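dude i think i finally got it to work??
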Amino acid sequence: MSSLPLDSTNGGGRFPGFDVTTQSQHWDVATRTKVMRRTEPTTAPRFFTEQEQATATALFNQLLYQREEPRVPVMNMVDGRLADHETDGWHYETMPPDDRAWWRSLAALDEDSEDRFGCGFAAGEWEQQAELLHSIQDLGTQLWHGMIAAHVWSLWTRYG
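look at this
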């Protein structure tokens, strides 16, 4: 997880009002396509349930340290990929296919949050969510809900 936002001594707030997309003419086609696609409106979710949407949104906000607007709608992008079966074409042998791994890992996040804090992951406080994610990341190659924690972490971070 990131230590963002940066404080002013480490570059935070250096370019207030700067819009990086104004520089797109200087990027190669692949970069321009990827960045500009992320700024376009996203479609309504088709893969995740409402509960899973909330959990995944909170997860991505944590992973990207998105504490306030504007936020990149990563959940919608991941939802669209999974709904369209646009996976990376592989998964760890120890993991279920990506669609099932997503459902299973989001349910496990909610379960752990409920056990620890008395509420689902999305309803938890920012610090509680961070604490839970750090505890999962710290497991490394140990099992978390029957899956290798590092492989779950890889799943979460490679889709964003």
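The mean pLDDT is 88.
im so relieved honestly
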